[in-house]
Amino acid sequence: MMKLACKDLDPETDCHFEATGNSTKEVAGKMMKHMKEAHTDKMKEMGMSDADMMKMFESKVHA
């Protein structure tokens, strides 16, 4: 099982969301959906394209 939590991206966040799945792409996709729904302000601050953000999420997915 692969996973990526909001805490993995920002250790100071109070968000406890964790995306899980069988592949890095699946987990990154779930994290992207969560970020767009719950952290739109943070996404704007990051100033990254969706493609670049997906690459970043995929690089941080872990077992």
Secondary structure: elements and pairs:
Layout: E1 2-5, H1 6-9, E2 18-21, H2 24-38, H3 40-46, H4 50-60
Antiparallel strand pairs: 1-2
Give the number of DSSP strands: 2
Rg on CA atoms, Å:
11 Å
* Element order: H for helix, E for strand: EHEHHH
What class do helices, strands and sheet pairing give? alpha+beta
- Total number of distinct structural domains: 1
- Based on Cα principal axes, name the global outline: globular
**Terminal residue distance:** 6 Å
Mean pLDDT across the residues is 96
Q: Any low-confidence stretches, pLDDT <50, length ≥5?
A: none
Output the keywords.
63 residues, alpha+beta, 13% strand, globular
Short synopsis of the structure:
This protein has helices at residues 6-9, 24-38, 40-46, 50-60, and strands spanning 2-5, 18-21. With 63 residues, the chain is of the alpha+beta class. The chain is globular and about 30 Å long.
Written account of the structure:
- Helix 2 crosses helix 4 (50-60).
- This protein has helices spanning 6-9, 24-38, 40-46, 50-60, and strands at residues 2-5, 18-21.
- The longest helix has 15 residues, at 24-38.
- Strands 1-2 form a two-stranded antiparallel ribbon.
- With 63 residues, the chain is an alpha+beta fold.
- The chain is globular, with a radius of gyration of 11 Å.
- The chain contains four helices and two strands, in the order E-H-E-H-H-H.
